[in-house]
Design a protein that fits this description.
alpha+beta; 4-stranded mixed β-sheet; 9 helices; 13 strands; 14% strand; elongated
Amino acid sequence: MEESTLPCLILLENVIGFELSGTETQTSEESEPDQKQQQKRRGSFQTWREVLSKRGYRNAHFHLDPTDVGIPNARPRHYTVAFRPGSLHSKVKDATISAQLKYAGSMMPTKFDNLFAEENLEKPPTIHGPESIGGTPTTALPCIGDYLDADCKLESSLLRIPEKVWSSSSAWCFDVITPVHHRSACFTHSYAKFVRGTGSILYTGPLETESNDSNEVVKTNRKRDRATAFLTSTIFDLEAPDGRSFDADWSKDIDWENDMRYLSGTEIARLMGFPVSEPAAGKSASSDDAIDKSFRKFNFPSTTTVKQQWKLLGNSLNVEVAGKVAEIGITLLFMH
């Protein structure tokens, strides 16, 4: 590309581990054991760094998760922000607008500037964590109930877990959450297609037991920890799959028809930071919110099926995290 056509700002999202590509070693099998040569492979991440550096970009790399911006969902990702100093101002020919941009840049906060130190390509990159963006402590995360549909318009059969799935031995791998949990698993494009590692399902059944005396309510023993959000109900232990051993009868008392379901597309969209037009359960769209977000409401096309919504979201990114990364890039672009 010609210098004049290069983008001012580049934002990249990839899986955690992308930054390690090229650091592995490959052994030559043709050599004798005592003469094995270690051949370093040139990975895509190192190529990425070299090209950005050659083109005059300043870069910062991050490992961020939705929990870092206050959303109870796990989706850890690698992000790179790259900008070309002076490129925005050089593209603006109008002197008045250029002056306004420079003034705006002078008013920008400088807290992100030190994240963009010049990279030494001979050394591993510096990866910034949530503390660099003022991440939200996990104890401050809202509960899942804040992201659920107030009035699910989908037929229950569309979110119901098929009997052939919940009755199989692999069903114990389900990641089960409730409206009072403060966590949820990463949702992938294979949600509802496979059991393990594709996203959480929702238990909506009773979490307390009423005794024969209607005036007396016997509370269940709740083991709540905001970091892991494991909760004991009267029916079964709601623990993540890697926190329990296989038990063929783990769900024998669950009413799968009425108390367990997949999350809807709009519920997952909220957990991925999309500004869904319809408010979640217990929330109403305030007038201020309507004014502030009327230009960026999110809806699925009416022709999109539930399965298509799941797949699209699984291949998407968290809007809130991406927005934070974009804010950093835009801030630096105005400043330089």
